[in-house]
Amino acid sequence: MARPKPLPAAKLAAGDFLADSADADLVYFLCNVGDADAQLVLLPRDPVTGFRQAIVVDAGAKDKLPGLIADLITRGILAPDGPGARGSIALVVATHPHDDHVAGLAQLINRFNEDQRISEFWDPGYWHTIPAYHDAMGAIAQQGHLVYAQPTSGFRRWIGLSTAVTVLSPSVQLRNRFDTYGTDINDASVSMRIEAPATRVTRDPQGHRIVRPKSSRLVLGADAQTLSWSYVLSDFPYLSVPTSEQGRLLDVGSGVDALRADVLKVSHHGSKHGVNLELVERMSPGLTLISSVPGPGKYGFPHTVAQELIREALQATAGSNNVTRSDDADLNIFYTADTVDGANTPLGTIGVVLRKGDWTMWRFQDRADQPVDLANAVRWS
Amino acid sequence: MYEQRVAEPEPNPQAGVTWRPDGVPFPDDAPDPAVDRYVAIDRLDEDAATLIVAPWPVVDPETGRLAFLPDDARTVAVVDAGMLRDRVDRDRGSDRDLREGQLARPVRVGDVFWVRGYHAEPGAWESVIDVTRAGRYAAKAAFLATASGAPLPEDAAGFGIAGATTLDPSPPAARPPTEETPQPPPGPVAFPAV
Fold first, then answer.
1. Cβ separation of A142 and B57 shorter than 8 Å?
2. Cα(A248)–Cα(A250) distance, rounded to whole angstroms?
3. Taking a C-beta distance cutoff of 8 angstroms, is the pair A271, A304 a contact?
4. Residues of A with CB below 8 A from B109's CB?
5. Which residue of B10, B42, B45 is in closest CB contact with A299?
6. What's the pLDDT band for A250 if we cut at 50, 70, 90?
7. Which residues on chain A are in Cβ contact (under 8 Å) with B57?
8. Which one of A62, A105, A129 makes the best mutation probe of the B interface by having the most chain B beta carbons within 10 Å?
9. Fewest C-beta atoms under 10 Å: which of A90, A100, A157, A167?
């Protein structure tokens, strides 16, 4: 692996993370948990309740996400305990049952088990023999109201007033092979795109009006690998829309490219089998994020070959003698393992505020074993 | 409010009984949660096998689930996959002389082993038995119980499952042959893992 190049301190400045996010913004946290995944998405604030709802995607370590969620409750971002907390965590997704994605799941579900705060749980349906999987299943079963579903590609779910979630993988063709060892556990991953605000309808005395706001799109790649992504590329083809009224309506209805992303969380910690060139070109992310340890770790993530193909997708140099490869930071590729130039300070957890497709990135300077302190935020510019 | 399942009773793993799945050739004094380990293969990355090592589980009498206590006694170990296979095979017996209930096959993600005398090096394990069949059965049952609940036998009629065939987790060789085994249709066929 190639250790991330330290970021220039001059491009980081202290600021007020919470004040930076407007009510309609989508907010994403990629927590620093080493070679594991723990993610939180805050949906736009509900103007009626005054609170945001949250989506949790993996809890690969204990304490980190529960601490962050508790802090957001204390700060009034998420609803406090009581009847209003119901559905405050709209969805918890265990992308696949590897220990580094579910080790903290039972703790999280048990900690927020009052007031029906968690509404829904998804996993791919790949059952696993590790203790953390048994723990998670037991924690869910304690809550009769908690909806448990196993979505496959193409499933869409609308949450709150303006957020649409599209499941990109696993393909049902992979799901049908789970019981026979016919699918690698990473390829079982639930990957998805979260979009807010999604296409909506307004009404007036003359009827409905379809409105397509400028939205923000976040693709969370889980640990899906090249086989799974090959199905995704097949299941979600680029729709070449003619410049006609019908084509425009098609674009308004579902978008011409369901894989296009403003922010991409790279799959499998930057493993060489996690992404491919065509996929990243299709997604064309403005911001590319990788969850990994700062050193070689157990598996050497991120793999250099994966880093190179992401760079090539974002800045094509093959076939050209005149293009010099930019630094990762200039290509907007960042790692939870980032450090600051001239210091050993970890930059740790990444927070992203998404507004109409534009983003601002914040870092919380936490090590993998430290809590996320929102007051310790520095902004990348 | 719609509920997907009846919420399970509060777990009580401290009152649990040692998990001893049928058909597994444990020695008479095993398994013992105090000294034995549950070793599951979490992932295989080329030559590296990532193992989750936990105290041997008990069956929670309230929920029917496996409980691995204490949970802070779990460890993650990365070992050479070839060495792991060699060690498992040593106690499994040769291809022609497999111990009862054991299968000769490569190690795979999701495989589970009972290990006595656990050590960071698989070659130094005192004793090992492949309990994958029982482990996968328990894992699949865990998710089915979560999806739709796990009623007590006396409540089975109310759920329309009284008299239903119980799938047996023990090895096929221990079961009498049945004429009801369906023949596969023409075309691609997938077979169960264990």
1. no
2. 5
3. no
4. 181, 184-185
5. B45
6. low
7. 131, 134
8. A129
9. A157
The answer to whether B61 and B17 have CB atoms below 8 angstroms apart is yes
pLDDT average, residue stretch B140-146: 96
Which tens digit of pLDDT belongs to each residue from B56-113? 999 999 999 999 998 889 999 999 999 999 999 998 876 666 777 777 788 999 999 9
- Cα torsion A99, A100, A105, A108 to 10°: value is 150
Place of tokens 């998990």: B19
Asked whether the predicted pLDDT for residue B179 surpasses 60, the reply is no
| d(C-alpha A281, C-alpha A272), whole Å | 16
Helix (H) or strand (E) holding A352: strand A350-355
Res. B153: pLDDT tops 80:
yes
Of B3, B50, B142, the CB nearest to A134: B142
Dig out the tokens for A250 from the structure. 């098609």
Residue A123 · residue A94 · CB < 8 Å = yes
Q: Within 13 Å and on the Cβ side, how many CA atoms surround A108?
A: 33
Amino acid letter, A71: D
| Structure confidence at residue B174 (pLDDT) | 47
Interaxial angle between packed helices A131-141 and B132-148, expressed in degrees from 0 to 180 and rounded to the nearest 10 = 20
Please report where in the chains the tokens 């902004």 appear, as a residue. Answer: A379
Which residues, 6+ apart, have CB-to-CB distance to A108 below 8 Å?
A: A56, A59, A65, A66, A69, A92
Neighbours of A94 (CB within 10 A): 29
Prior bond to A151 cis, omega within 30? no
Q: Which two tokens stand for residue B94?
A: 């040769």
H helix intervals, chain A = 17-20, 64-74, 99-102, 105-111, 131-141, 172-175, 226-235, 245-254, 277-283, 304-314
DSSP-assigned letters across all residues of A279-305: HHHHH--SEEEE---SS-TTT-PSPHH
How many distinct helices (H) and strands (E) make up chain A? Answer: 10, 19
Taking the C-alpha atoms of residue A9 and residue A249, their distance in angstroms, rounded to an integer, is 46
| B140–A142 C-beta distance less than 8 A | no
User: How far is residue A343's CA from residue A345's CA, in Å, rounded to a whole number?
Assistant: 5
Question: Phi/psi at B116 (nearest 5 deg)?
Answer: -110, 135
**Which residue has tokens 């300077």?**
A365
Give dist(CA A184, CA A110) in Å, integer.
29
Q: DSSP state, A346? A: B
Higher pLDDT, A242 or B142: B142
| Res. B186: pLDDT tops 80 | no
The stretch A269-284 carries a mean pLDDT of 92
A129-145 confidence digits (pLDDT tens): 999 999 999 999 999 99
Distance, in Å, from the CA atom of A32 to the CA atom of A367, rounded to the nearest integer, reads 7
Strand, coil or helix: what is A158?
Answer: strand
DSSP, res A308: H
